[in-house]
Amino acid sequence: MEDNTYQEDYQEDLLSDIFPLREQTTGRKKSHVWDYYESYGERKHGHVGCICRACGWKRAVGKVYEMVDHLALSCQKVSAETKQIFLQEVRDRNTLKSNHPPPISNSSTIMKKQKKITASFESIEIEKSKVERINHALTRLFVCCGIPFSIVSNPFFIDFVKSLCPAYELPNRITFAGSWVNQELATVTTIIYDETQSSTNITLGIDGWAGPNGQSIYAFILILPSGKEYIHSLKDFSLYSHTADFMSTEILKVIEDVGYTRFSSVVSDNASTMVAAKKLVNEKYPHILPVRCITHHVNLLTTDIMKHEFSKCTISKCMTIIKYFKRSYKSGANLLK
Predict the structure, then answer these.
(1) Could you give the C-alpha distances from 44 to 20, 40, 57, 59, 111, in angstroms and in order?
(2) What pLDDT digit, counting tens, does each position of 216-225 carry?
(3) Which of 198, 208, 240, 275 has the largest CB neighbor count within 10 A?
């Protein structure tokens, strides 16, 4: 019953901006998500404004599905238990489990009654399980390959999809970039949470780099004993001084968020700040060992080796040989035989 109420709220929220609702003096009970929000402002089109009690996030129009998405995927101050409750709600939505037919106008209603010639040899129906599988695959394709969501409405892409599966209906860009992506993100987040909660001897990997616009970006990566690696968070520290105290505080936030008993080590490069920060973490939790990244050590070692006179001479001779075969077409062709 609660799931049906949520779906009605979700559909009502999506249509409220297009079809203004009449003011109602009575109605069904508010969704339980309002327990985590304060309402403000005057009721407009059936909605009032909302403010997150945990972090202060606000919307002029409080829509249930946006409020749930915020608590499940964006709010950094809500408790882990609350986040899991709303992650499950996002996962249980039916948006990725159903086909999305386009809006039907009066003219298309008439055309719908008339069968096309392709109906004689092409399936006009598709199994629900296949629709769900296609929806998940399409979402992962666009997200993992960095494809713009606007492509989903491109006529050439639509023609390509129809050629593969004529019965499948693509969603609109807003639905695709909103509810579909959020539901897939909730699924992945829940899987990562379940795996980390059932693991011990986790290693926290930390690495930092300069972004394309000069930001100071740090990644906190959970390395499980099984060899799997999950990004816990990406943080922009451009506004902060990278002192040992600051870095150790940020490391402890991640460790305590996952559970300090599940960690056995922290690994990073050999920068003096990170060495001091890991030492502070070890002082608070002695069982979490500070480890230096072997990859950085190999890189530094290789750099020192290449500074040796013997290495310089060897590399110089190798480059002379390479240039000869690149400049001589006949010699290059004989080499490839």
Answers:
(1) 9, 11, 19, 13, 38
(2) 999 999 999 9
(3) 208
